[in-house]
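Quick check before the chapter quiz. The format below is the same one you will see on the exam, so make sure you can read both the input and the output lines.
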Amino acid sequence: GLPRAPTPYAPAIVKFDPSLDAVLSPDAKLEKLPAEGFQGGEGPVWVPEGRSGYLVFSDIPGNRIYRWTPDCVKFPCPPTGKLSVFMEHAGYMDASRVGTTDASGTRLRGYNGLMLDRQHRLLLAATGDRAIQRVEKNGERTILADRHEGKRLTCPNDLVGKSNGAIYFTDGGAGC
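Here is the expected output.
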């Protein structure tokens, strides 16, 4: 039979195919983060930096990227840790585009997909700016792509990197 369902305090990985062990350590554990202070979570990326590293994820409706730093390094670790804003006006290079709506009431869109490049710089699928961007070590953003075959991207969504440095991304429909 299937393993019993996880409780909210002790989540478990339910494996339907043993080949998952080739990708995910058989003794991997899930840690559920409390959903407090943000409106949605997308594109999580673990940043291996410092003693324990940290997790960043997009809050698209909130137009922010959050950072979660664990309280401890070894499992089991309580799902506490420190949640902080990693980047405001996340979907836009224009720093005045903060919050969930602009002055006219138009909904602002934050980032969606996130990933690290081979130099551990954060890459972003910038839904608001309609571009793929890179956050430089000094915090400035560089546009890597905002057009394909001469046409503006409509709604960059997710991205993934290949071992050779190539970046693949999806571009959703207009008005995403």
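If your answer matched, good. The chain has a mean pLDDT of 82.
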